[in-house]
Input
Amino acid sequence: MKGIFRRSASHRVVLAVWLLCTASVNPSHGAQATQQAPPEQALAEQALAEQTAFQNAINGIADSVVRIEPSGLSVATLQGASEAIPNVGPSSGVVVGSDGWILTTEFAVPSDIEEVVITLPPKKKATETKKQPLERLVGRVIGRDLNRRLVLLKCDPKEPLTEPQFVRQKNVHPGEWAIAVGRVWNLYEPSVAIGVVSAVGRCWGRAIQTDAAISPVNYGGPLLNIEGHVFGIIAPLPAETAGMSTGTELYDSGVGFAIPMHDIIPLIPRLKKGETLKPGLLGIGYSTTDPINGRPVVETVRTGSPAAKSGLQSGDLITEINGRAIQRIADVRHALTPKLAGDALEITVQREERTAPLSIRTVLTDKLPPWKRSMLGIVPMRQPSQSNAKSENAGVVINWTWPNSPAEKAGIQPQDIITGAAVLPQTNEDDPPLRSTTSPDQLAGLLGGLTRNTEVVLKIRNSETSRKVRVTTAPFPEKTSNKVPAFNSTIEAVPPPAIVKLEIPEVAEPSWALVPGQQDGPPVGVLVFFDEPSGTLSENAVTIWTSSWREAVARYRVALVLVPSSDSSSWRQADLNRVGKTIGALAHQCKIDPTRIAFAGSKAGGTFAWLGANRFDTIARGVCLIDADIPRRTRIRRASPDRFRWVLFGTTDNEKMNQEGSQQYQKTIQRLREAGVPVSELPLGDETEKASRLCQWVESLGLL
Output
């Protein structure tokens, strides 16, 4: 077995030192041996002990590691070599049943593959001069775990396969040895990489992390302890798995992941029955932009989701899940991500109107109902995020109502105050208890997960009366409104806007903003604008460029932000990286309304604005592409309450649009709407009209 495994010098030294220290603390013979043996001999003995320990572990697992090669061949036609399907596998697998059960990963067996070729290890130790024929079998896909990217195969061996010894308990700890084993290139001897367990509970509670040199050929192979027992199956699970397909993105990055056996073993009977295990979905969003350390307060509850059916409400603070204490959103993700569709949960929440905790039971699902943003037609007064005033006058003050919306038709008027709200269950004709609404955030959370044709009860107060109103949600508008009221009737009524330099210490070139001059008013909306790339922006150039925006900025209280391109000919990734910091720098200059932040751009800048809005999808509430389209091959994710975005296609040249781009634009618009994304088209006219219409649209982003 000499030379068949890789290990770093640091790991070898660590083990040698550990063995030496172990010997030195044994007064009966270790100290005596150290005195009698010269240093060179002692080191040689430690090296031999090291190699022996690893080889014993590898020898114990070698007969249980197989090669997996995708193939469309059947049992009847399997003769000799097979041709692997391009762009997948080969990789490894582990015997989990002596009668032909093999566990591997989707790396070698993607969803469209139903059969693979399994190469079994040699029955006897091979020599260089005479290598025995290898047994190759067809493996059939029986079950899949889509959450952990595992695949269970069944083959029909002539003789029983060797099943390894598994670590079934949660007794894996950081710092212990980890041996990654695979079988791909040399079919007569396994490949080996050695490291340590560097962390547990990674990939949101699904995996063990190791620093062993993992490559794609290891996927599906075992991760062993120093005793040769399997404590995990190596799987393509990056640290952040959203949008990943194979896991090769972290190849050679210094970390690898394995699904722990104590999680896998209980699932094997279900996989043997042919089940496809899918991630469990709850259907909630959170009232924070911090996805890690934010408080686990439920903001949105998706209509028809397990959360909605079980009675979870907007504003509930999650304190426990299945007895596990929850303090931040990361704790929720750790508790939920390993769960599968069909798993039961007991969620403990603290609800505003209750003194005692409330226990809610639910069952996770594999698919949430389709969601498209609905609206009542209410646009609240602007105020800072998370404002939770508890005064007598607390409530959501209505700034204006959308023309011909359910709110307008129900007689809800500007300056009305919404003090309570509730969603009317379809199975109950009586009004449910109202939840007090002290801020637009709370009302947005209550309404955010609803679909169209959902009835909502609102408690409305004005200077004369207090009443309850039933309003039914309607589809989100496909056209923008030109009846958006301005904060200031004329620019002469307020101080003129000011040009502000936004400097970021680690960025050489500053960004710029045209900011409303009245600092004591309500928070400003934000429009980050990308024009054609031009390189450095001087203050004089900014002054000239923004001259047509000054009136609209003052009237609608929108800060216009200009981010320079790092290259005079194109927008680059570095430009995108500074956008978030630029918005942060603006927040030090004025109060920002987080519900009214949008990206916009013209031509190449429009496409870049789309990329920016997707990069900062937790803060971008809208994106406008002017005389531009989204990248042709871009993947459009389905809209969800926590990633809602209003997309606006603007044009300054209607004739050109009709002649050259209409067909492609319509295809893009159709794709977006099929994904539940609200889309509007808007002719913009000259620069002054463009500025006015876009600032009106930023104000409209607060629509509920």
In short: The chain has a mean pLDDT of 81. The chain has five domains: 5-59, 60-125+132-277, 284-363, 376-475, 491-700. Residues 39-61 form the longest helix (23 residues).
